[in-house]
Amino acid sequence: MKLIIVANPEAGAVRAAEIVIQQIKAKPASVLGLPTGGTPVGLYAQLAKAVKTKQVDLSHVKTFNLDEYYGLPKEDAQSYYTFMNVNLYAPCGLRPDQTHIPSGTAPDAEAEVCAYDAAISKAGGLDLQVLGIGGNGHIGFNEPGTDPKSRTHVVTLTQNTREANARFFTSIGEVPTHAMTMGIQTILDAKAILMLVFGSNKADILFDALKGPVSIENPASFLQNHPDVIVIADQAAGARL
Ligand code: PGA
Asked: Does 136 qualify as catalytic in the annotation?
């Protein structure tokens, strides 16, 4: 595992974009796994800038998002599809056939999650998975206690996660109770993983994930078992490392 400590989230976004762009230059048809949340917003802005200034061509990449709320239509302002469309797909001119995200309104959720794993495999597997980390160590929506061998599945969100995400909704009652997420094994099957961690509120969980025992109590700790992981943390998040 390679740890890169940067001064602040802005510097982290620049460094992360360099790594993603390097991946795409080495393999223009890269398959990228992508997160939502506050953490990757700066990275997506950097990628949009790089597309506009023709430093990178994203026209051959495929993207697979980590997760989506279950029950929200893609047009909903809080869906992860909308988040991705606003922050990455539209600014980078990605075509609908390039982007994948589980459908939160699929009538048969089990069929949807199975088809998602199959689509990742058909695309050749994830070349680079970008991740954030939840305050409880979750990666995607894989909450503590998730089977490390899990593939894309439907999850019940913990109270902790719903509270953390309530900032994007009018009230916590509006935060969906369920989601679809790539499983821990789906994530670990990526050839390379880039995890971004910013802010002092992530310092303890990041320390536990990287230096503590590999345990289902901290899903991000399974990254210790992956051969190609880069972690970019700002000084606040990396304070204990
Ligand atoms: P955040 O979420 O980027 O909004 O902090 C990270 C996560 O929950 O994975």
From this structure: yes
79 Cα distance to chain centroid: 14
Q: Please work out whether the CB of residue 42 comes within 6 Å of at least one atom of ligand 1.
A: no
Q: Which two tokens stand for residue 111?
A: 């069929």
Q: Which helix (H) or strand (E) holds 232?
A: strand 229-234
Please tell me whether residue 51 adopts helix, strand or coil conformation: helix
Whether 132 lines ligand 1, by a CB cut-off of 6 Å, is: yes
The neighbouring-strand residues paired with 129 are 33, 193
130 lines ligand 1 (CB under 6 A): no
Nearest-atom index, ligand 1, CA of 165 = 4
Candidates 230, 65, 38; CA nearest to 141 is 65
165-to-41, 222, 230 alpha-carbon distances in Å = 15, 24, 25
> Is residue 65 flagged as an active site residue?
no
Rg over alpha carbons for the chain, rounded to the nearest Å, is 17
3-state SS, residue 220: helix
Per-residue model confidence as pLDDT tens digits over 105-134: 999 999 999 999 999 999 999 999 999 999
Where residue 22 falls (left for φ over 0; alpha for ψ -120 to 50; beta otherwise) is alpha
Out of 143, 153, 165, 189, the active site residue is 143
**Structure pTM?**
0.97
The closest-lying atom of ligand 1 relative to the alpha carbon of residue 131 is 9
Q: How many CA atoms within 13 Å lie on the side-chain side of 187?
A: 35
Active site residue 110: no
